[in-house]
Amino acid sequence: MSRDIDVLVLGGAGVDTIVHVPELPLPYADSHMIDPGIRTRAGQTGDFVALGLGALGLRTHHLDMLGADPEGDLVRALHRDHGIPLTEVPQPAGTKRAVNLVGPDGRRLSLYDATRAHPDDRLPEPTVRALAEASRHAHVSITQPCAHALPLLRESGTTISTDLHNWDGENPYQKEFALAADIVFLSTTALTGTPERTMRAIAERGRAELVVATAGAEGAYLLADDEVTHIPTTTPRRPVVDSNGAGDAFASAFLFGRLNGESPQRCARYGAVAGAYACTVPSTEVDAIGRDELLLQVAELEASTVAAPH
């Protein structure tokens, strides 16, 4: 069977309105003057992963539900401008949208519009099956239509990854994704106890061969071959302005390494470099590290590690 798509990205297409606030949590006031202004742009988790993969040279296809609305037009234009094929399924409730409050230190608080989805939302089975059977790998966002697509993805024989984001380690909704994926990404933000406990539980109860827990400025943790290792952060080459999209960039670069046969540790280094790069991109813009720049920075990082005294 021909696998002409490297990565099929399911879900996570939408639009964010970026609001820079003087601090988080935002103190109550009758009004706040917002500088550098308020901007609406296409780009949620699935969009960012798809663009990140495409920037690294992987043949990427995005599948999701979109509305016939201005927000959907922004998403369509984003994919068209970056050359990412997009298969859209009509969403009568409208394209997903959120408001992101961004503090001076780059931290983010997202407010998601829950009216843009319904419990009976589905991605058409023939479409999912056809795209999955043409793909080497599928990265699945944790939206309701994608949950129903998981059995079809497994049947297709493609490997699966997912990002649980700020899972608490217990919520059964995210757990379904965690146990169905071969590669699991999550944030340590909402975890109770050590990240290792949750990471091992995912691997023991599900199918995951690799589990990555990102911890912001503390780096990340990688579970591979029954061993948990710490992956330090890397220093970006430009000032840090925003953490928006860093986790998606990490996942994209990690998958790039995995699909190119790299070791889990090198995949994680790819992720750390790409995540650091994403932190230098303002949330009002869309940009992803390219293949040549990623390989150069990782090579320099590895050379400096070897040269450092022990």
TrEMBL record:
Residues 39-285 form the Carbohydrate kinase PfkB domain. InterPro entries: Carboh/pur_kinase_PfkB_CS, PfkB_dom, Ribokinase-like. GO terms for molecular function: kinase activity. Keywords: Kinase, Transferase. CDD domains: adenosine_kinase. PANTHER family: RIBOKINASE, SUGAR KINASE. This is Adenosine kinase. It comes from Streptomyces prunicolor.
